[in-house]
Amino acid sequence: MQIDNFKDMYIAELQELVSVEEQLENALLRMAEASSHASLRAALEQHQRETIVQGERLRSILKKHGASPKLHTDQAMQALINETKKMYTIVTQDYVRDAGIIASAQRLEHYEIAAYGTAAALAGQLEFREDQHLLHNSLEQEKRTDELLTTLAKTEVNRDANA
Ligand SMILES: [Fe+2]
């Protein structure tokens, strides 16, 4: 595929994000299952449900623009998730693994925050106000998840891991 205009670049960003969310649907479930702290498991499960909605949001935006949701596999997300899987097999102590899960989940969230920030900015420049609003909602969900993970790390998980 060749991209020769700004709108096509925006569409390609959204298609990457569909792939990101689809990969995360499974990865977040596996991370929740591997979590020992109930609070961490609940946070990951809640964001997994948000992730499904975020994927639907992206598909509805793409449909509105007459674009296919299936064009890219986001390889950066694939690599980040593979690193997470590797961590599970190396860390044997439950609470230490939870600290590792938070570290991995925050990497994934930061990647999404960057991607949604770009997509929302492009929507704004193209004056697709409704898209911009929807993408901003997803961006805020990613940020809230990131903040919740930071709180969990500070208040229980890392403290228990170091006990
Ligand atoms: Fe997401």
Using only CA atoms, what is the Rg? 17 Å
* Share of helix, binned: over 70%
CATH superfamily: Ferritin, core subunit, four-helix bundle
Mean pLDDT: 95
The helix/strand class is: mainly alpha
Largest sheet, strands/sense/barrel: none
- Give the low-pLDDT segments: none
CATH fold type = Ferritin
Run of helices and strands: HHHHH
What descriptors fit this protein?
163 residues, mainly alpha, Ferritin, 84% helix, binds fe (ii) ion
Give a description of the structure:
- By secondary structure, the protein is mainly alpha-helical.
- It has one domain (6-162): Ferritin (Up-down Bundle).
- It is 84% helix and 0% strand.
- The protein has helices at residues 6-34, 38-64, 75-90, 94-125, 129-161.
- The model has no long low-confidence stretch (mean pLDDT 95).
- Fe (ii) ion (FE2) binds at residues 21, 24, 51, 54, 112, 142.
